[in-house]
Amino acid sequence: MSPPQAEEPVIRFENVSIAFDNPVLQAISFQLPRGETKILMGVAGTGKTLILKLALALLKPDAGRITVLGEEITNMQERELFALRRKIGMVFQESALFDSLTVEENVAYRLIEETGRVTEEIHARVLEALRFVELEHTFNLFPAELSGGMRRRVAIARAIITQPEVLLYDSPTGGLDPVTSNTIIELIVKQRDVYHTSSLMVTHRLQDAFTMASHCFDRKLNKMVPVGDGVSVEDMRTRFLLLRDEKIIFEGTATELLRCHDPYIREYLS
Asked: What is the pTM assigned to this prediction?
């Protein structure tokens, strides 16, 4: 009998390179196992958001292979990508909500595209998604009537309403105050621990990254709490990927990152 095969990662980059005027990513390889969160870090311009765009096939690499949910997307035609993208949720930087649509219409946007209108079923799903982010009372409001943190939470509701297999977060706490940022991170941890959704998250905030790696969501208390006795940060299925000079210079757990003696990484963390 042959040994059981390891589960296929939900995202796989193999020797992926892309350049514009200059190289941005050179021969990078990594995998996102099912149920894991991978946090992409590095200074501005190192290609973190670019990795999200490549994973969505919004851009094509110059070289290498990208596989998403078992399908190689590197040379996939646009019409073939529609079905695949329905399985992926994206939380854009600055939320990217439509100003002329209500919260309900924003959250239901992808579902309305399929039906042409808000049905009773869609309305129920919108309320469920908004309840998850604790904003069910806002469905008739417009984005201009919401705070910055509330708009980010609506963006998360929009991303999760299709119950995606993969979530991509592009700096979800950028520009927010520390208290509001913590609320957003708590929602991301809740999605990770309650639904076990695989995700890639770009962040510039080390505090957010280490909070995710050292906390879990307690369903009974309905809040994020530090990991308890007998639970290591490795159990949180959250890993770090650090980019520098077009390359991945570190990939591993929070503990491994803190123990790394590389001078650049020590300076980055300080």
From this structure: 0.91
